[in-house]
Design goal:
The structure is a homodimer. By secondary structure, the first copy, chain A, is mostly beta strands. In chain A, β2 and β3 form a beta hairpin. The longest helix of chain A has 8 residues. Chain A contains 1 helix and 12 strands; from the N terminus they run ββββββββββββα. In chain A, strands 4-5-6-12-7-10 form a 6-stranded antiparallel β-sheet, with no helix packed on it. Chain A has a 3-stranded antiparallel β-sheet with strand order 9-8-11, with no helix packed on it. Helices cover 5% and strands 44% of the residues of chain A. Chain A has one domain: Jelly Rolls (Sandwich), CATH 2.60.120.10. Chains A and B meet through β1, β7, β9, β10 and β12 of A and β1, β7, β9, β10 and β12 of B.
Amino acid sequence: MSQKTHIAQTEPFRWEDVPVLAYKEDGGTHFRSITRQVLFDDGDAAGSQLRYFEIAPGGHSTLERHDHIHSVMVLRGCGQALVGREIHALQANDLVRVPPQTWHQFRATAGEPLGFLCVVRTERDKPRLPTVAELAELRADGRIGPFVRA
Amino acid sequence: MSQKTHIAQTEPFRWEDVPVLAYKEDGGTHFRSITRQVLFDDGDAAGSQLRYFEIAPGGHSTLERHDHIHSVMVLRGCGQALVGREIHALQANDLVRVPPQTWHQFRATAGEPLGFLCVVRTERDKPRLPTVAELAELRADGRIGPFVRA
């Protein structure tokens, strides 16, 4: 990625020489309509990355959990986030913290994209998807069951 | 700081239970009209912090350098950033990367505050101010001399 000291926004939520990537490289069907841009990578395995994700209207991220923390700030649009057993309504500039090994999923509202920053450690564990039993258990929870998509 | 999983923005660029702090604790005169809010601290000395700084109209940050990297995204307003020997005009959503041991200073335009995110390593070295000789050398550089404030 670019090592320039200034990277201008060229059009809304797109940046000079920052490619718009697939959300995940495995091409799975556990997410829908979402892109990824790596804004900063400090080049240190023990460091951090700042990524910008954008979920198209009605789309969603993978329902997953992992050891590493997600520190999220919404930049545009509205949506919802499942974190653990709670569903939060999201607006621009809201913050979301995903603790270790906590099920989470982001969803955009129907009308506009949901764009958010996410800080992670560069060296991090792979996300894990729910097993059939775990998914059944999440779906059986009246508070969150109707929300989850997998 | 708060360990909640959702931290709502309560008014523009202010967040629930996130205190608005002095920019620096030393109360120096090498900066002007700037506040700091720690949005995320992953609680790991080897991890990272996400901070939000806001420079009031006409204010500026300290002219300094250090080993740790700053990864910056402008969220509101306009201004300028000195990074090394370059001055960049800044607008919302622009990115600024400050490499190790690179002189840098941010300034807000007269008309509105300049607000920006900054990701840093939690465990980091202290910033260093220019010596008298270094400052004289920076001021003698026609490209950046008129910009620096110390």
